[in-house]
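Review session, final week

We close the course with one last complete record, chosen because it touches almost every idea we covered. It is Spore gernimation protein, a protein from Tumebacillus algifaecis with 360 residues. Go through it on your own first, then we will talk.
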Amino acid sequence: MSTGKKISVLNAYFIILLSLGITNHVILLPLLLQTAKRDAWVGVLLTMLLLMIWVYSLCFIMKRTNQQSIFPWFRERYGAVVGWLFLIVSTFYFFLMALIMVRETSTWIKVTYLPHTPKVVVLIALVLLCIFVAFNGIRSIAIISGILLPFVWILGHFVAVANLQYKDYSLLTPLFTEGYKPMLKSMIVAGGGFLELIVLIFIQHHMSRRISYLSVSILAAVLAGLTLGPLMGAIANFGFEAAMQLRYPAYDQWMLVSITKYITHLDFFALYQWLSGSLIRISLFLFIITDMIPFKNQKRRLPFLFVLGAALIGLTLNSAVDKQIELFILGKYSVVSFTFLAALTIIIAFSTILKVQCKR
């Protein structure tokens, strides 16, 4: 695996926008609508403002760790037990996030585009591609992101403009008809997605230079915009009552797009957007897992990636696990994600302040 080559900060941001943006579109949007209905967009806006404070903590951690690989940093500073505990917890989190995305992507493709194709075929094709990209290293992920993101961005603006004729932004108001509590709950949902920016800490040692607070703040604002735009678009297109019933509001906005009466059914562009984000997200998380594990022989990385891939496929095909993932996403996902990532940020930040040095 090519782990020695560095990527630019811009490359890293392309990766982040694709890998985190897909989650905000696929998972966060329906949760936000179900949690706060019409007030959800205000919750996202307020969360974005608070996010700028959290971004300072992120930059503080990267400065204090001198942008080193985070697992060796923990192991050298606090010993093998603490280091391996951190690695195990982090590995479980990234594997779970990859599993959720594999499940969501394969299920969506099966339901919308390939109903007669066995799900296992879709899974094998998706996972093998992600393993190939992850094995080739962070530079491969960065290059692919740089190719895919511009078209994803253009298509996102295209669907927004194409649906202007159907949008009624007066549906965004009145606000707080049920009080402020739903909006406050939606901030936790949005926060769980935005705090995934902590991924930067796990790839910081692959960046050619240190990132600044301003650049991360801009990245956070763009990421919030990727959530706010389709969220407001869904409410303006469908009304909050209908929008909150949709499983994939961002995809359903593509169903409305037409160019004159002769060009319709442009929703296949959503497939490109979704697969682009899924490919980068799953590949990135598989790469981070194998990048953290200190293999004595680098050739063992590929077999280990195949083991991870087989686990992803097997768990996704298991009907009991599939049902539990669905219930988790629609239930406790946002709270668990927010709590875990907030706690992880605090633990890492606090660890950088302690004056401890333990080589073994």
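Two points worth writing down before the exam:
The CA atoms of residues 108 and 248 lie 9 Å apart.
The chain has one domain: 9-353.
Good luck, everyone.
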